[in-house]
Sequence to fold (216 residues):
Amino acid sequence: MKFTKPVQCVHCGNTAPMKIVASYEVRGDEKGMNPNDPLSRWGETWRLIICAACNEISIGLLRWYDFLDIEDEFQMKIVYPVRNRTLTGLPVNIDRAYDAALKVRNIDSNAFAVLLGRVLDLVCLDKQATGNSLFERLNFLAARGDIPQQLADIAHQLRQLRNIGAHADLGELTSAEVPVLDGLCRAILEYVYKAPQLLQVAEQRLQQLKQDKPST
Ligand SMILES: [Zn+2]
Fold:
């Protein structure tokens, strides 16, 4: 059985060699290049690989050249699953907390909910929301106008799901809830952090355009 070099699993975040269960190779000349052209001596290898930690499948793509030693193979790129991480502008501690949550996303739905709840706690802390509970702090943010009431309602749903994830007697979350949890949390993070950042970029660009405009 063959293994890859150590690679980070997008599903669970574990870094280790992965078992290669299938490989498919396409050569440059098969892609229509002249076989006599030395530059055609390259190819792509698609690999179906399995993570030993979470048993989930990933697909790796490797580009190689005949004139390079196979040991020098270009680093394999994971093309599936797609890393679902396009949030920018998060404060460092919130970014880390969200990353920690994403690492358990596909392993334990309840733990995911609990860690997303922690992200909400940190957002409240960052925005200096006051209140004795997360419920009160979210309402505080809505009342002060940091987040619209609709978003506070979303946050309350996430908070309730977090409570179920944290307390076994309230029930159990399943993988079916994972996209819902992630969607709720992303909606909040995007509104609170990404939107203001985009607005700032747009304003700077507008200022730049005004300055660049030749005076009439
Ligand atoms: Zn894994």
Summary: The CA atoms of residues 124 and 137 lie 6 Å apart. The chain has two domains: 2-80, 92-210. The helical segments are 92-104, 109-126, 134-144, 149-166, 178-212.
